[in-house]
Amino acid sequence: QQPVQSPQAVILREGEDAVINCSSSKALYSVHWYRQKHGEAPVFLMILLKGGEQKGHEKISASFNEKKQQSSLYLTASQLSYSGTYFCGTEERAAGNKLTFGGGTRVLVKP
Amino acid sequence: DVKVTQSSRYLVKRTGEKVFLECVQDMDHENMFWYRQDPGLGLRLIYFSYDVKMKEKGDIPEGYSVSREKKERFSLILESASTNQTSMYLCASSPGGPKETQYFGPGTRLLVL
């Protein structure tokens, strides 16, 4: 079952903040965040691991609530380059990086 | 930098044709994955492979098969293409360690007429 992302879409002005949520019905080992720009491959942003460890982009922040199986991605002081579709991918156990992706959140940052 | 390449960016095929989508990675990754991407549905896993000649079904394997004869190459096969297989197909690879992630190719947009 795919994780649920919310909102489905968000429009921001440059400099504004936004939060993208990812919620799973299953216990998770890790959550991975990607951004995809139109016509391009998804690009890895961040991985959040059970136990609190994080790896990824210095300017992107995210949280992972293991008890609730939820993760949030924070877009702070948004820039035009933040536009794209954001996906969360959830990993149920540490075995082979098999991810289940959410439906995506489309983000548009306007000048 | 990890590089994942896919044989075609755009492909147009007729219903009933056999279609091959090729994916090659140059980082000696253990694992490879095939997804299809449709609006609002995100990325859905078709098949994946943890080793040469090994394959496992993902969430939507019906109508597809795969082949992994060499570590760096993972092929997706549509035995008899149908219009409902019109989609964006993305290939990914990963090293396989517990704190690793997947790296994606640019995708192949397939249109089945």
Characteristic key phrases:
heterodimer; A: four-stranded antiparallel beta sheet; 11 strands; 52% strand; B: 113 residues; mainly beta; seven-stranded mixed beta sheet; four-stranded antiparallel beta sheet; 0% helix; 53% strand; globular
Descriptive notes:
- The complex is a heterodimer of chains A (111) and B (113).
- By secondary structure, chain A is an all-beta fold.
- Chain A has strands at 4-6, 9-13, 18-23, 30-36, 43-49, 54-56, 61-65, 70-75, 84-91, 100-101, 105-110.
- In chain A, the strands form 2 sheets. In chain A, strands 2, 4, 5, 6, 9, 10 and 11 form a 7-stranded mixed sheet that branches.
- Chain B is mainly β and 113 residues long.
- In chain B, strands 2, 4, 5, 6, 9, 10 and 11 form a 7-stranded mixed sheet that branches. A 4-stranded antiparallel sheet of chain B has the order 1-3-8-7, with no helix packed on it.
- The interface between A and B is medium-sized, with 27 and 29 residues.
Please state roughly what percent of the residues of chain B sit in beta strands, choosing from under 5%, 5-15%, 15-25%, 25-35%, 35-45% or over 45%. Answer: over 45%
Tally of helical runs of chain A = 0
Radius of gyration computed on alpha carbons of chain A: 13 Å
Q: List low-pLDDT spans of chain B.
A: none
Q: How many strands appear in the DSSP assignment of chain B?
A: 11
